[in-house]
Specification:
The chain is mainly alpha-helical and 212 residues long. The chain is built from seven helices and three strands; from the N terminus they run αβαααααββα. Helix 5 crosses helix 6.
């Protein structure tokens, strides 16, 4: 029984030894430099422009919010809605100016109380502590908002990059079919010594050629 099993195993190994070289001899292999394909794809420039515009917008919004960071959360939210609005009417412009002035006055009052130090009355000390706590809490909220915004931009970048890769894969399949290539590997073609076709340039040509 053991001898029969060994015999069967030898036959199986022999068949594999025959079939693998047979496939390797008949198969046509291709390679593509994915980084070159991504960087050379015309849509990448559009992607980068959209990401820059998004980042610039977020930066501008946060720069504006810093002007009113000492106000109440409700006032900050109101101000944020105004400054992020595509169009602003006269009432919104007036309100944003009022909130900025209120924030400026808050800072001035806070500095006056801080300068008094130990000379503050009990009521002034209570007011000072309330103002300081409000400003500190808003600063922590602001930092979290910045973190969330940055993560949102990173997610946007990843999604757009995946979309580019999806387009490239479609072009790879099309080029491979035309050139009768059986398998395509993603690697730097310079690492291939012999036996594979570099289809990076044909893929880029297909990607960047406007559809008719």
């Amino acid at each position: 029984m053991i001898r029969m099993m060994r015999h069967a195993l030898l036959i199986a190994v022999a068949l594999m030894a025959i079939s693998i070289p047979s496939f390797a001899q008949s198969a046509v292999f291709g390679v593509i430099d994915m980084e070159k394909a991504i960087n050379g794809y015309s849509k990448r420039e559009t992607m980068e422009a959209e990401l820059k515009a998004k980042n610039d917008q977020v930066t501008a919004n946060f720069d504006s919010l810093q002007k009113v960071l000492v106000l109440t959360p409700e006032e900050i939210d109101e101000y944020a809605k105004i400054v992020t609005s595509a169009t602003k009417d006269d009432a919104q412009k007036k309100r944003s100016t009022e909130l900025e002035a209120k924030a400026t006055q808050f800072v001035a009052d806070f500095n006056v109380l801080a300068a008094k130090g130990q000379a503050m009355t009990a009521d002034e000390k209570t007011k000072f502590d309330t103002m300081r706590a409000q400003a500190a809490n808003n600063e922590n909220t602001f930092k979290q908002m910045m973190t969330d915004a940055n993560q949102s931009i990173l997610r946007m970048r990843d999604e757009k990059r995946l979309a580019l890769i999806a387009d490239i894969k479609v072009a790879v399949a099309s080029v491979a079919k035309e050139q009768k290539i059986n398998l395509v590997f993603s690697m730097n073609p310079q690492n291939v010594v012999y036996g594979a076709i570099d289809i990076t340039d044909p893929v880029l040509k297909r990607l960047n050629t406007p559809a008719k």
